Automatic annotation (TrEMBL):
Its cofactor is pyridoxal 5'-phosphate. GO terms for molecular function: identical protein binding; pyridoxal phosphate binding; transaminase activity. This is Acetyl ornithine aminotransferase family protein. It comes from candidate division WOR-3 bacterium. Pfam families: Aminotran_3 (PF00202). The keyword Transferase applies.
Length: 435
């Protein structure tokens, strides 16, 4: 039974000294990691299908990443791109500008995190368009600083007590077909959610001429690993073009190879105006980036900067991470992701409590329900399944109200996937009392 004795001691200290605002789903006190596995302080091994919330794309402590950290830290640890130039930052920007949809002619602003990348995009969009409003989507998660939190509409606890938010943010229904806001089905719906955005929001409450940008996750992460239908982003892009609104893709969770393409939006072949990345970009080092058309990123010196953003060690890891992604990990995410999705769909055929299985690459969600017809959500049982997985040696997380998400390192193999799915099935049977 977990936690073990050493973990218990640390949990006590954590309770004494760490802000309780983080919602840890189970008492995992991790000491070290390697590839797809982590070990806790009591020596228990776990198969990690969280990857530091979709961050350690190359697996824990990839030897080549460790080598890069060692070498770069001997040369230069910090200098600040706010005031100085350094090669590794330019090299990573050049690479990102080359691989981002819509390349070339892209420029990059480096940050330390996802939320800062979103803040940068919000400021840039307003600066360029000189329009006050933003649109984002229900269930979206863009971060927890005031600008990004104003866009976020995933869970009320994330906003409760923190208002008022940035004025001029409007939330539209997302392409969440399993729980369509209009009770319609794709393709007969003819994108009713996007028609609502145009007809009801842009024409009635947020005048299109006053909207600077629409922020969207190509696949919603925290909101429940929700994949919009085919054609969705092409329609959204057309709306943006009609009113000269900027399309900002938040690729913070879906980017950097996770979905089997370098960027999630590539599945829809749409070119955004601004792309935000973070999480998987540097294999665990804190780094984010906002990438925009060069003609757009022409704000004057002093208008935006960050002391730590684009840290040399993080940038060096970013370059190595992209090399490893292009060297086979993106392809592996696709192959193993299809395999994982297939196994989970087989489980769905057998267990009524699995309402939906969806995802792309290694961004896979399983939505649990109490009743398949009514699609009754069950947060408590979902949390129970996540907890029972932990007790059996598998780390996974919830997403949205009633979904279990799987986001393993992109180095994962069939053997680990078989094991993870077997543990998930056991946990499911235990929590839902299925014999
Ligand atoms: N955007 C998306 C899609 C995310 O998933 C997250 C984090 O989960 C963020 C933004 C915020 O990133 P960070 O926690 O690095 O600020």
């Amino acid at each position: 039974m977990l936690p073990g004795p050493k973990a218990k001691r640390l949990l006590k200290l954590d309770k004494r000294y760490i802000s309780p605002s983080c919602a840890r789903p189970y008492p995992a006190v991790i000491e070290r990691g390697r590839g797809c596995y982590v070990w806790d302080v009591d020596g228990n091994r776990f198969l990690d299908f969280v990857a530091g919330i979709a961050v350690v794309a190359t697996g824990h402590c990839h030897p080549e990443i460790v080598k890069v950290i060692r070498e770069q830290s001997k040369r230069l640890i910090h200098i600040s791109g706010t005031d100085f130039y350094y090669e590794v930052q330019v090299a990573l920007a050049e690479k990102l500008a080359e691989i981002v949809p819509g390349s070339p002619n892209r420029k990059v602003f480096f940050t330390n995190s996802g939320t800062e990348a979103i803040e940068c995009a919000m400021k840039l969009a307003r600066f360029k368009r000189r329009r006050p409003y933003f649109i984002s989507f229900k269930n979206s998660f863009h971060g927890r600083t005031y600008g990004s939190l104003s866009l976020t509409a995933s869970k009320s606890i994330q906003r409760q007590g923190f208002g008022p938010f940035l004025p001029g943010v409007f939330h539209a229904p997302y392409g969440y077909c399993y729980r369509c806001s209009f009770n319609l089905s794709y393709p007969e719906c003819d994108y009713a959610c996007l028609r609502f955005l145009e007809e009801e929001i842009l024409k009635k409450s947020a005048p299109a001429e006053d909207v600077a940008a629409i922020f969207v996750e190509p696949i919603q992460g925290e909101g429940g690993y929700i994949v919009p239908p085919p054609g969705y982003f092409q329609v959204l892009k057309k709306i943006c073009e009609r009113y000269d609104i900027l399309l900002v893709c938040d690729e913070i969770q879906s980017g950097m190879g996770r979905t089997g393409r370098m960027f999630g939006i590539e599945h829809w072949s749409v070119i955004p105006d601004i792309v935000c990345v973070a999480k998987g970009i540097a294999s665990g080092l804190p780094l984010g980036a906002t990438i925009a058309r060069s003609s757009m990123m022409d704000w004057p010196p002093g208008s935006h900067a960050s002391t730590f953003g684009g840290n040399p060690i993080a940038c060096a890891c970013g370059l190595k991470t992209i090399e490893l992604l292009e060297g086979g990990l993106i392809e592996n995410a696709k192959v193993q992701g299809d395999y994982l999705l297939g196994l989970l769909k087989e489980l769905q055929d057998r267990y009524e409590v699995i309402g939906d299985v969806r995802g792309k690459g290694l961004m896979v969600g399983v939505e649990l329900v109490l009743d398949r017809i009514k699609k009754t959500p069950t947060t408590s049982k979902r949390d129970g399944v996540v907890y029972e997985c932990f007790q059996r040696g598998l780390l996974c997380l919830g997403a949205g109200k009633t979904t279990v998400r799987f986001s393993p390192p992109l180095t994962v193999g069939k053997k680990e996937i078989d094991k993870a799915v077997a543990i998930f099935e056991e946990a499911l049977k235990k929590v839902f009392r299925i014999s």
